[in-house]
Amino acid sequence: MKYMKLSFYFLLFFISMPDLFSQTFSVNGIEYGVLDDKKMEVEACGIQYAKYWPSLDLPDYVEYNQQRYKVTRLDLFFFDTSFGSIRLPSFLRDLYIPNCTIGEFEVSKNNPYFTSMDGVLFSKDMKKLILYPSKRNNRSYEVPSTVTKINLVVFNNCEYLDSLTLPDGISCLDVSGMIYELDFPEIRISESNPNYTIKDGILFNKDQTRLIKYLPQRKSSSSAYVVPSSVKHIEEKAFSMVHNLSKITLSDNLQTIGYGAFQNCTSLDSVFISSKVKQIEKEVFDGCTALKTIEVAPDNPYFASQNGVLFDKQMKRLLKYPSSRNDSSYEFPSTVEEIADKAFSESRFLFSVKFSKRLKRIGNNAFVKSSLDSLSFPKSLRFVGDYAFKGCENIMNVSIPGRVQFGGASGLFFFEESNFFGKERKVGESFFLWVFSFG
Q1: Count of CB atoms within 10 A of residue 82's CB?
Q2: Pick the residue with more confidence: 430 or 311?
Q3: Segment (H or E) for 8
Q4: Average pLDDT, rounded, for the chain
Q5: Which residues contact 1 (CB under 8 A, 6 or more apart)?
Q6: How large is the greatest C-alpha to C-alpha distance in the chain, in angstroms?
Q7: Which of these, 198, 279, 264, 271, lies nearest to 232 by C-alpha position?
Q8: Radius of gyration (Cα) for the chain, nearest Å?
């Protein structure tokens, strides 16, 4: 009967999605969708599939049902085709082609939004480099001096590019999309650049108070790194996916650690939080599967650690339980009222926990992919976030108080389907009442 209730619940997800376009049609192997009937605009949203197109030449207009439409957008998200070249027409103002490889761009001289130079795509005023063709067969590239804004993700997986020189005028450098593991050219910035500098393969702002990115060009260096004493801020995902980094010494002057700063540093085994750190963003240590301990300076007024586990100073919020801490059980300090998002994610050695009697809130993905085999929640618990125990395939016994609320559309997000179907489970009836409650 209980499985039938869950099966019925899954049927709620089978809702047909509305069409994205009012009409679609094909012309010369290119699929178009009508974006706006009044403005007579269409999007090029598909192609006759082939692994390689020598040239994708988009026209200014296409005709359909005796109507003439402007081509204003290109979106090939679902395609991984390789193009020798792509020509952008006069009215195109938006494009999204994240999975395609391209040899060069050409742009209609009448297009007011884009232009190209040497096959590279820029904004019309040449101040922003928009896309660098990953199949462009040059070993080095010097970004034009007019460019002030660039997202370095556009150089991910460039097949031939070995070195990239940035101009002195760069004032907005976005590194958030860089993937450390992918092939990436060596970045060079002149000493006269007023905004950025690179020291030993690390990107900083000019005065080195912000550590922006541990660059792939440092990949073969030591597994240990000492953050310079000048650094006050470590930026978002600055060390993300640096798999060879096992030891990092943080600056005594460090104040903030950005979102996901050490995300997926799979060799990092210990961290010491210095006394001046006052802000640690979410998911800083997410995916650090070798992490055994997080220590905090005793005189830090914002954070504390107990037995290598990270808390806020009042010990009311558990922020991170190191994934590789090798205890099979954990008893929460009696002060804990909240478990942060992903706090226990991938805790593969942890089989049981004893929650604080004051616990009120469990965050999103709090125990995702941990090895827990049973759960007994305190009566104080009032909220459990989305996917809090997703991937906890060993859980056999669950006891949940009846007044618990949950995040998202439904309590189904508490567990995933694989936790229940085809396995013996001892789950209280209150769980199913909770699953079908809607907040």
Answers
A1: 15
A2: 311
A3: helix 2-11
A4: 86
A5: none
A6: 76
A7: 279
A8: 26
